[in-house]
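Listing S7. Sequence submitted for prediction.
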Amino acid sequence: MTQHRGPRPGYDWDGASAPAEPAPVDLPDRRESEPVGPGDLGDSLFAGPEGMLGASAESGPVKHPGRRFTPWSILAIVALQAVVTVTVAALVVGGVLSLLRGDPAPAPDAAPSATQAPADEQTPRTKEPGTVTDAQGEELTDGTGGYDHPGDVGEHAFGWTVWTEGTLSVSAREVDLEATLPRVGEDGLLEDGFQLVEVTYEARYDGPGQFAPVEELWLAGETDRTYFHDVAEGLLPDTLRAVKPLSDGESAEFRALYVVPSQEIDEFRLGVETYSGEVLYYGVA
């Protein structure tokens, strides 16, 4: 049998008090209020004299402080802008100069070679051939003066055209294959198994102005295995460096010294050349 729930015993329903109705609240008329701007909205979030955070009635609204740059940060920004400006200007000027010079653009797939020589070293300097004359002054064209067919000391003369448009002629007059000098032993220049070769040269200039042989003439000794430098400077007084500039028709003698292994003396040759002229050889064996 179903029972209905009845009033709780001991509870006075009739005398119970109901909660009071809330008092009416007058809402502001939004039609008459002024529009709120972004600044007013921001101020209203942080300020309010009564019941609002971040302000008092005396201090008024408190605004949120904005971000400020320090002097050092401003200087850093200015310096960065200056660097960027200079870099861009350098790139622009470099590109303009490259276009004016007509420099070809490098191939995109061409990588630089570690063994590639500079452009001025890839093309060997062209040297003009010299002339060889005999004791009578007749020019020889049979290959005399080459390494395999050297000229004879005291007989043949070598000549080249020099930068003054004149002619420099050089002759080997004498060769001493067993020369001795007082200072050679003291300086330790000559060791066992070597011998001192002394050569007397004569240089003649024919042409305009003056010409200094030391500025154009190169002397050396050669064998199949070794290249020898002239060591006369400091040992002899009349070296190539001591020759003064020559005028048209003037000549001068000078000496050169070479330290040569005795086992190579039979193939030893005297090489003579100028800056723009090919090397010519004298045999001494």
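Caption to Listing S7: primary sequence and predicted structure tokens for the chain studied. The chain is about 20% helix and 25% strand. The helical segments are 38-46, 71-101, 119-122, 182-187.
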